Amino acid sequence: MTHRKPLIAGNWKMYKSVAAAVATVLELKPLVSNANHCEVLIAPPFTAIKTVADRVEGSNLFVAGQDVAAEGAEGAFTGEVGAEMLREAGCTHVIVGHSERRQFYGETDERVARKARRALDAGLIPIICIGETLAEREAGQAEAVVERQIKESTATLTAEDLIRIVAAYEPVWAIGTGRAATPEIAQAMHHNVRGVFENVFGSEAASSVRILYGGSVKPENIAEYMREPDVDGALVGGASLQPDSFSKIVFYNRD
Ligand code: 13P
Question: What is the DSSP pairing of strand 125-130 with strand 233-236?
Answer without folding.
Answer: unpaired
